[in-house]
Amino acid sequence: MLSGSSLIWIGALLLGLEASLTGASDFQHHGYEEMVRALFAVQSECPYITRIYSIGRSVEGRHLYVLEFTDSPGIHEALEPEFKYVGNMHGNEVLGRELLIYLAQFLCEEYRAGNERITRLIHDTRIHILPSMNPDGYEVAARQGPEFNGYLVGRGNAKEVDLNRNFPDLNALMYYYEKHNGQNHHLPLPDNWELQVEPETLAVIKWMQNYNFVLSANLHGGAVVANYPFDKSREPRIRGKTTYSATSDDKIFRKLAKTYSYAHSWMHKGWNCGDYFDEGITNGASWYSLSKGMQDFNYLHTNCFEITLELSCDKFPPATALASEWLANREALVSYMEQVHHGIKGMVYDENNNPISNAAISVAGVNHDITGGTDGDYFRMLLPGTYTVTASALGYQPFTSTVTVGPAEAVQLHFYLKVQPKGTNLNLKAYANKKGPSTAKIPPTNLGPR
Q1: Pick the catalytic residue: 82, 110, 310, 338?
Q2: Active site residue 235
Q3: What's the rounded Cα separation, in Å, for the pair 267 and 11?
Q4: For labelling alongside 175, which of 19, 37, 83, 182 has CA 20 to 30 A away?
Q5: DSSP states of 371-392 as a string?
C-alpha cells in the first residue's frame, strides 16, 4: 500500500505540479505563534521573492501579517497586477488559514525547484497572502478544538463582532445611484467610518486603499461553493424568498467562480454538505442576503473583484483531513491566481509620455468603471470579446479605443490623452473623486457560513 506522502507526491504529478514543501506529517493546525513562525520560515527560505509586512493589529494586539510573493518584493511594478488571498475572517473557519500557509510554502518550494508555471506566476504577479484576518477569534475556537467547536464559537473577533458584517454598507448607496444615474465605482465612505468598524476591518480597508488590487478571494468554511457578488439583495427581505443580485460584471464573476469550482476536486459536482449549488457556484444574494460584507465592499470601493470561497462542510476540520483538503484545493488556488492576467491592461499617458494617475477606465455597456493607479497603469478584467474602452482624467480630453480580448494573456492597450482646451465644459461625473464627498450619507442596512 502506498504511504500518505507517496499519495501526495503522485497527486502533485497528476496536477502537473511538483511535490509541495509540506509532507504528510506537516499537515497540522497552526496557532498564532506557529503561523507566524511558518510565514517567517518561508521568507527565510525564499528571501529574494518574498516580504512579510503587517497591515495592523487585532483587538488583542496580534499582528495581521501578510506574506508577499513577487520578483521585486515591496515594489509595485507598472503593468504587474496585484492579487490577494484573505483567510480566517471568521475565527472558527480555519481551513482557509491552513491552506494559505501551505500555499505559501508551496510557492516557495516550487520556485526554488524551477517550476516554470509558478516562476512565471511570481515574476508576473504581485501576490499578497493574509492567512488570518481574525487571529483572536481563531484562538478562541482553537481552545475548544475540532471535536467540540460550536458553529459560532470564535466566529467573531475578541469583541464578538462578525467581521463580515462590519464593512461600510456601500450596496445601499450603489442601488440608490443605479436609479439616479450616479457614480458607479469607488463609492465614498460615510462620515466617521473609521470609528464604526473594528480594528481588523479598519486594517483591511486601509490595505485595500494602499494597494491597487485587481483580484481577490476570501476563504471561508461551513459549505462548499464559490460565492460571487452581490451578497446584498436589491429587493426588500421577504421570508423564504431570495433574489439574484447581479453586478455589472456578472459574467466575469461567474467565470471566476467556475474557475475555482472546476479546478477543485469536488466543488463543481454541486452536492456538498447537504446543499446543492449548480456547478458549485452561487450568487451571494441568491443564496441569502448579507449586508456590510467584505466581498461587495471590494467591488464598490476599490478596483478589486473578490469572490468568497466556502471550502469545507466542517468549519474546524481535524488535522487528519488537512492533507486531502490541500490536494483538493491546490490546483484551484493556483488557477484562480492566474485569472488576474485576463482582460486588458495598459498605461495612461499625457502628450509628453508622462503617466497620468487615477484615470477612469470605462467599458461601453458595462456600468462599472475602474481607476488607474498612481503610476498611470490600469487593469480591467474582461471576458474574450470586442470592447469599446474610454480613458478619461480631470483636465484631459477623453480618448476612446476599440480592443479585442482573447482567452490568453491580457491585451495591452495604452492611452495618450490631450490636455483639455481652456473654456471647455468637463463631464465631471467621469472624474469622480475616489474618496467622494465628505458629507456622503449611507442609508441604514442571517447568519450563514459567510
Answers
A1: 310
A2: no
A3: 17
A4: 83
A5: E--TTSEEEE---SEEEEEEEE
